[in-house]
Specification:
The protein is α+β, with helices and mostly antiparallel strands and 334 residues long. The protein has 4 helices and 15 strands.
């Protein structure tokens, strides 16, 4: 484990809310969506049980708090097979009129190699991570800036999604965000103590199993895995529980507040994270992860960001309690 803490591949929001969407209190106006009846559409039911949570290889960044490895017991739960897509998020927006945090703030972070916007829309670089550009008009429908759109990407994961946005969608869909423990259990796909969702080798048989960066970060992406940015949500192979892309592609929000010291005091039964905090947990890594900078595509890796932050690699999947019928996976670790 290294003592050096490299910042997450997604910068915290630094924009000022747009005056058009600013409330008298000075915060962006975010529509409140009504809760719908519970739904397990697109989810698998996992039987829960006991597993060892955390980094068994001691490979993470110390400030991320991936250790100590600790035993967790989970009740049965449901979780989405894939990250939420542009198509599904568009249905939500059409039904509710929801406006994302990125739209309220008027800008969002776009990776420097893919910006597609007029020069007047370039608002500056993120502190400490100059490859992130704050781009006016970037949001989920225009992920690279004003000149871009999501044509042909309906089955890609929606991006530029804040925790607030993900929570609002989940509430509307009759679901919830997964706890961090649920996310790791599900992402492991039944493999106990392994480095990745498919085993300990990154490219078994010389084949890429996830969408991460190849080349020299942050200037040269050879895209050997076939994806310079996001991939369709059913790319590569699903894990042993039938979940797709639990490593790379997009960071996924969890319900928990983040604390690097939480594992040392975590509840053994269905932990839900600290009671308070300033940042929410992110899991899974993204298409920008590379071992020279951010090896957080490992299944135990964790990161965080503030609930209002968005960028071109932040998405999510939903979960649900386990007391309803849905396609089943055994949920047994092996």
């Amino acid at each position: 484990m290294t003592d050096e803490h490299r910042p997450c591949c997604a910068p915290a929001v630094a924009a000022t809310p747009s005056p058009v969407t600013e409330t008298a209190a000075g915060s962006p106006t975010v529509p409140v969506t009504a809760a719908r009846d519970r739904s397990t559409r697109g989810q698998v039911r996992l039987s829960g049980g006991e597993f060892a949570m955390g980094d068994a290889f001691d490979e993470g960044y110390r400030a991320d708090g991936e250790t100590p490895v600790h035993t967790v017991r989970l009740k049965p739960f449901h979780i989405d097979e894939t990250a939420v897509t542009n198509a599904r998020f568009a249905t939500f927006v059409k039904a509710t009129g929801y406006v994302t945090d990125a739209e309220c703030y008027g800008s969002s972070a776009v990776f420097h190699l893919v910006v597609d916007a007029p020069s007047a829309d370039i608002l500056g670089h993120a502190a400490g991570t100059p490859w992130w550009i704050n781009v006016r008009g970037a949001h989920w429908r225009r992920p690279e800036g004003a000149r871009s759109d999501i044509t042909g990407r309906q089955n890609h994961p929606v991006v530029h999604i804040s925790w607030n946005d993900a929570h609002a969608y989940a509430r509307w869909a009759g679901k919830r965000l997964p706890t961090e423990a649920e996310w790791e259990y599900a992402a492991r796909g039944g493999l106990s103590g392994r480095r990745y969702a498919w085993g300990d080798e990154l490219t078994p048989g010389g084949r890429w199993r996830c969408n991460i960066w190849q080349g020299r970060f942050p200037h040269t992406n050879t895209a050997e895995d076939g994806c310079p940015t996001t991939a369709p949500v059913r790319s590569y192979r699903p894990n042993g529980f039938g979940l797709w892309n639990t490593a790379g592609n997009v960071w996924e929000w969890c319900s928990d507040w983040f604390s690097p010291s939480y594992y040392a005091q975590s509840a053994a039964e269905d932990p839900h994270g600290p009671e308070t905090g300033t940042a929410r947990v992110l899991r899974g890594g993204s298409y920008l992860c590379h071992d020279s900078y951010c090896n957080r595509y490992r299944v135990a890796a964790r990161s965080s960001n503030t609930p209002e932050s968005s960028s071109g690699n932040l998405g999510f999947r939903c979960a649900n309690d386990g007391d309803a019928h849905a396609p089943r996976a055994t949920g047994e670790l092996r």
